[in-house]
């Protein structure tokens, strides 16, 4: 499917350093550069049954800053993102509202595109829906079945079968999260797993193909029978098809570490025989609101589109997100927006003076802060210092403002 328009990426003097980023799988900060000619990244996309909230926006802005840092270091980037437009929550919401699930998905994807455009997020090179990929994904499930790595289970009370991956045949299971089985079990059912399904060989075996049920949308699965893909196999298959493995960076919110990214990698081993799926895993911490993780199922949401409708400058939203380190959970309050609004006002004032403090040290500090595990709050604080100095009349450089404005745009995605 089409993604959204790419914002202009201004050129700035020099080249940035190598990005250092925490790798969830290694449990430490590691340098991140393309293993091949082009940096390859896959970030898990939305399930389009509701509008983009600040938690989603935090995730996509974080990976946007990563992409900008990789480009600033002189590398080309190839970026793939999926859309989970075939899944239970989408069908349930569509049923509740009496609309076709395809219409609901189309509206929400359109809104997401608008939000991403307003937030100046660089679009993926390939934006891939599940519905348009069902035959390809079904082909991968069939491969696993024919290789003896998956098994069928009868659907209780109906014809047909579901298909599960046999984790006993997957030696890499557990390597992405590094979690114990107890830690996995504590979240598995909440995150879409079905540990108690009778007949499963292992409680964690992931669903690869859900056979058709009455009242549920289903697609032709050829030898698999009618049905639809499970959640994790969609990201494995789309990655294999559109990016290839191993690839440089797999990302999403921290709620995807287990089971989603664990299973995505495990299934790829079964299909490709390569022990490495992604070379590096990064995860955005959870953004909360009113005491809980912002989530569509809980309904405690602050929508990007609602803020925009209320007249909030999308750059204020972006600056709010960047003022929180990506690895720290945080809770949104209205004070966040007020702080960011005042901050961008000061920056604009400093940028519109006749002379400002020198740009080069600030450009170097922003690069250094961003490349130190994405210390975006530190980068914003450095801009504050520069603005304060400039507004105090200490700067004498008439060209600095232009360089600083282009740097804020290129590295942080903040257009003023
Ligand atoms: N379609 C799947 C991924 S394949 C999915 O998780 N969709 S989602 O709509 O629920 O979330 C979209 C992205 O936002 C995911 O990367 C998810 O990890 C991230 N996300 C969801 N809620 C939050 C939150 N409260 N804070 C930060 N990131 C979040
Ligand atoms: Zn995914």
Could you describe the 3D structure shown?
The chain has 416 residues and is of the alpha/beta class. 41% of the residues lie in helices and 15% in strands. The chain contains 13 helices and 14 strands. The chain has helices at residues 54-72, 88-97, 101-118, 134-146, 181-188, 231-242, 257-272, 304-309, 314-322, 334-351, 360-371, 376-391, 400-412; strands at 19-23, 28-32, 38-43, 76-83, 126-129, 150-154, 161-165, 207-211, 227-229, 249-253, 281-284, 287-289, 292-293, 330-331. The strands form four sheets. A five-stranded parallel sheet has the order 5-4-3-10-11, sandwiched between helices. Strands 6-7-8-9 form a four-stranded antiparallel sheet. Strand 3 (38-43), helix 1 and strand 4 form a beta-alpha-beta unit. Helix 4 (134-146) crosses helix 6 (231-242), helix 9 packs across helix 10 and helix 10 (334-351) crosses helix 12 (376-391). It is elongated. The mean pLDDT is 96. The structure holds 5'-O-(N-(L-cysteinyl)-sulfamoyl)adenosine and zinc ion (ZN). Residues 44-47, 55-56, 58-59, 82, 84, 235, 252-253, 255-256, 284, 286-287, 293-295 line the site of 5'-O-(N-(L-cysteinyl)-sulfamoyl)adenosine.
């Amino acid at each position: 499917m089409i993604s959204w328009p790419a914002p202009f990426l201004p050129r700035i003097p020099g080249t940035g350093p190598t990005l250092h980023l925490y790798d969830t799988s290694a449990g430490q900060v590691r340098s991140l550069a393309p293993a091949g000619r082009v940096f390859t990244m896959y970030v898990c996309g939305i399930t389009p049954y509701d509008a983009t909230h600040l938690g989603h926006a935090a995730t996509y802005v974080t990976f946007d800053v990563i992409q900008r840092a990789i480009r600033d270091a002189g590398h080309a980037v190839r970026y793939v993102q999926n859309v989970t437009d075939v899944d239970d929550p989408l069908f349930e919401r569509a049923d509740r509202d009496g609309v076709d699930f395809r219409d609901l998905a189309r509206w929400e994807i359109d809104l997401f595109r608008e939000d991403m455009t307003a937030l100046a997020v660089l679009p993926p090179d390939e934006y891939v829906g599940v519905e348009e990929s069902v035959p390809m994904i079904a082909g991968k499930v069939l491969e696993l079945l024919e290789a003896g790595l998956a098994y069928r289970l009868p659907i209780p009370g109906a014809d047909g079968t579901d298909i599960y991956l046999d984790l006993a045949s997957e030696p890499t299971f557990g390597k992405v999260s590094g979690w114990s089985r107890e830690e996995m079990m504590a979240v598995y059912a909440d995150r879409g797993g079905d540990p108690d399904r009778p007949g499963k060989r292992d409680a964690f075996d992931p669903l690869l193909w859900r056979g058709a049920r009455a009242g549920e949308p289903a697609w032709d699965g050829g030898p698999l029978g009618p049905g639809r893909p499970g959640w994790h196999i969609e990201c494995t298959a789309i990655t294999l098809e559109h990016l290839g493995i191993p690839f440089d960076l797999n990302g999403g919110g921290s709620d995807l570490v287990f089971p989603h990214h664990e299973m995505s990698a495990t299934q790829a081993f079964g299909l490709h025989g390569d022990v490495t799926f992604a070379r590096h895993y990064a995860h955005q911490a959870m953004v909360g609101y009113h005491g809980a993780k912002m989530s569509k199922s809980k309904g405690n949401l602050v929508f990007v589109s609602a803020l925009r409708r209320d007249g909030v400058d999308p750059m204020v939203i972006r600056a709010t997100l960047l003022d929180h380190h990506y690895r720290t959970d945080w809770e949104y309050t209205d004070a966040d927006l007020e702080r960011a609004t005042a901050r961008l006002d000061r920056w604009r004032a400093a940028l519109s003076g006749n002379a400002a403090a020198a740009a080069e040290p600030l450009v170097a500090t922003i690069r250094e802060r961003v490349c130190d595990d994405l210390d975006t709050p530190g980068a914003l604080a450095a801009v504050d210092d520069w603005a304060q100095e400039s507004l105090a009349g200490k700067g004498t450089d008439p060209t600095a403002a232009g360089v600083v404005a282009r740097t804020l745009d290129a590295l942080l995605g903040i257009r003023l």
